[in-house]
């Protein structure tokens, strides 16, 4: 595929899944860093993405807005990759399950926590936000059980997009003040992931995150 994909994102957002996957896969991205929240701070972005959300990937006529899907797409854009598990390969179903689980089940309560407990405290819904933070901690059990048997990574005994997608949620937990309820096993897992050169290059490219809780 000709040309360089363009990733519209905010530093430290779910777009980190995409930029991390690109670094791991050796895909060169053009990074368009937007102020947070872009639908308020950069309203012309709505002309490109009416949702106003990040990330958004533009790759010729390809337009994508789901971070886990973008990570998988970038990992396999140039053909089969060890970052993805193919049909017929051991752990294919688990790979799909944990990749989707990362956003639908784990990151979702984090975003509600951030909105009501961090960004919109004046609405008086901080208690509801904190409840979603506790929900996030309970939803970590599936990943914890998966790694409890001594696995280094989630699937097929190797690092994959599933680890990128789940790992981002654990990175975000530490950034926004949800780390106290994260089990030590998952903190160790996160440490293995963020030690990767691909992760470190992605973070360096994006710069400081506005989501870090002071």
Named CATH topology of the largest domain: Glutathione S-transferase Yfyf (Class Pi), Chain A, domain 2
Please give the count of helices. Answer: 9
Question: How much of the polypeptide forms β-strand, as a percent range?
Answer: 5-15%
Percent helix range: 40-55%
Question: Could you say how many structural domains there are in total?
Answer: 2
Number of strands: 4
Strand order of the largest sheet: 2-1-3-4
Word description of this protein:
This protein has 214 residues and is α+β, with helices and mostly antiparallel strands. The chain folds into 2 domains: 6-81 and 201-206, Glutaredoxin (3-Layer(aba) Sandwich); 92-196, Glutathione S-transferase Yfyf (Class Pi), Chain A, domain 2, CATH 1.20.1050.10. It is built from 9 helices and 4 strands. A hairpin with a 2-residue loop joins strand 3 (56-59) and strand 4. Helix 4 packs antiparallel against helix 5 (126-138) and helix 7 (161-176) crosses helix 8 (184-194). It is globular and about 50 Å long. It starts with 5 loop residues before the first strand and ends in an 8-residue tail after the last helix.
């Amino acid at each position: 595929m000709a040309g360089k994909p363009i990733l519209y994102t905010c530093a430290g957002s779910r777009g980190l899944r995409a930029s991390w996957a690109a670094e791991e896969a050796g895909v060169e991205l053009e990074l368009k860093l937007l102020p947070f929240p872009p639908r308020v701070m950069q309203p012309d972005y709505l002309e490109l993405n009416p949702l106003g959300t990040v990330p958004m990937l533009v790759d010729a006529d390809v337009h994508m807005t789901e971070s886990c899907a973008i990570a998988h797409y970038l990992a396999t854009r140039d053909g089969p990759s060890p970052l993805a598990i193919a049909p017929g390969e051991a752990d294919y179903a688990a790979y799909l399950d944990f990749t989707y689980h990362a956003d639908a089940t784990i990151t979702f309560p984090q975003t509600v926590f951030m909105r009501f407990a961090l960004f919109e405290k004046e609405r008086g819904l901080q208690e509801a936000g904190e409840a979603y933070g506790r929900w996030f901690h309970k939803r970590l059990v599936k990943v914890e059980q998966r790694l409890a048997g001594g696995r280094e990574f989630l699937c097929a005994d190797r690092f994959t997009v599933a680890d990128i997608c789940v790992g981002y949620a654990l990175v975000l937990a530490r950034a926004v003040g949800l780390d106290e309820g994260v089990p030590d096993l998952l903190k160790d897992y996160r440490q293995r992931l963020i030690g990767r050169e691909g992760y470190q290059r992605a973070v360096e490219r994006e710069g400081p995150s506005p989501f870090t809780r002071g």
